[in-house]
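G., the chain you wanted modeled:
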Amino acid sequence: MLRAVGNNVLLKLPPSEQRTDGGLVLPYRNRYMVICEVISVGKGFQKEEEIPCKVGDKVLIQYYNEENVIKEGDNEYIFTDFYSILAVKES
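Predicted structure as tokens:
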């Protein structure tokens, strides 16, 4: 498994499609924002820098470039930086 370094986070993408209650299939690649699970968090470049999330958190990011997707088995991952995280979902 890969590990994030610097200002980066490794995120697990949701399944490639989800269904609404009515049965409609919504491919996540057609959405503007995606909720992902944090798999690995870098330590940042500066000690006073606030790291906005931790492993296991669900975070909201904007649409990403599909070319940056890392596939491992049935799972898909993406690296992004801290500044691309729009929100952290609270439990």
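The beta strands are 8-12, 17-19, 25-27, 33-41, 58-62, 70-72, 75-81, 85-89.

Shout if anything looks off.
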